[in-house]
Amino acid sequence: MKTVPLIVTDTVNNSYQCYKVMADEDMTEVDVIAAIKKVITEFCETEAGQLLGYK
Length: 55
Known about the structure:
- The protein has 2 helices and 2 strands, in the order ββαα.
- By secondary structure, it is of the alpha+beta class.
- It has a domain at 20-55.
- It has a two-stranded antiparallel ribbon with strand order 1-2.
- It starts with a strand and ends with a helix.
């Protein structure tokens, strides 16, 4: 199991959040995309995401 960093950049406030996506060597492309989607969804539900109008 490897941890892949996913950086979400807030260009309006010139800041970023770093999330970790767990990636297994036998994951398919679809699995990786689903994991990234989950992290982005979680970000959109945070206070920062809501302030940016993502929810």
